[in-house]
């Protein structure tokens, strides 16, 4: 009996073989199997039983991959954002994929509203500054008024009243001496009693004048001074608060004016360094990328300047495969003109939102880092094959030779007694070949068209053969 012997795969089949390559291998296996069927038919020509295409069970390396479509991008981008508040229309923007030099104009925003803001803020800033200057003069004058009274007018009034007290006391003594002299003269008969009363009245008047001056001095020291100082200091505090408010208002208006002037300059965005500029991709649920006439808001990313020496591929791995993908796994990246080797650098722990834009499929963002190579451009489509497992020296059979029945796996083995169904236990698979854990031996010939033998009659005829075979093996 002739059969197809599967050759071991090369040491690096993953990097060299794409999905189309695997399909070609499978077709080759089927073709060679057809030739084997003819040979087997000639060998068993005397038998009435038809023999199907077979595959010789052998050992080899099994590479399991996850294939996805991705987009080439840079892992290090300089984001060029809008620095103008509110929403502003884009008047002009550089084309995506343009190489620019330092100082080249990249984006021009509508500056009409900002120019009006500059004019308005300048007017308010001048008014506020004028009020601040006036309050500053009032504040300085109030500070001088406090010192002027404390060290000037109060001291003058104090010295004047003290002088008046001394003069009044001297006048009392003089009036007292005169009244005594008049009384002596009146006792000698030289002056009348009327003149004595006049002198005595003048003496009493001088005493009252002393009390008046002392009272005025006491009022000045204990009441007038304190009241006047409290009034002046209160006015100073009030004027100082007003001045502080005017200064803060002037500073705020000046800041608004300066910010408006600065934003007016931001309406024209220029390149800070030379390099490639590209438009950021819009989210699937948003509108198209930024173009002339669209409105942009502050801190919105308008352009990207990618580092072409740090490129990566971003793919969305289906939720059914993401558990097998891990950082550090090798990846074959197929670009339109070349194939590169990469490494999984990051696997998202949270899925992207599913919706009509993703075909209602749940996918996890996965990044594949690439070596620095010249000529790579962001936005290029790429096909990636992530090697999630490598099984060496494993017992392999084609997936086409397996039949699933009630969560059990079966295959048909060509024996001297004819095709025989066997239950097997399988392991990992790459959709072309499957690892056999139990039920087959190396060298067994499995049929590649098992469904042709899946009938009640064949099952009944082979049940006895299988039972006899099991008994023989137990003996």
Automatic annotation (TrEMBL):
Q: So which domain of life are we looking at?
A: Bacteria
Its GO CC terms are: cell envelope
Query: What is the annotated localization of this protein?
Result: Cell envelope
Read off the InterPro entries from this record: UPF0194_transport (IPR050465)
Indicate the principal place this protein occupies in or around the cell: other
> What are the record keywords, sorted?
Coiled coil
Instruction: Spell out the protein name for this chain.
Output: Macrolide transporter subunit MacA
Whose protein is this, by species? Stieleria marina
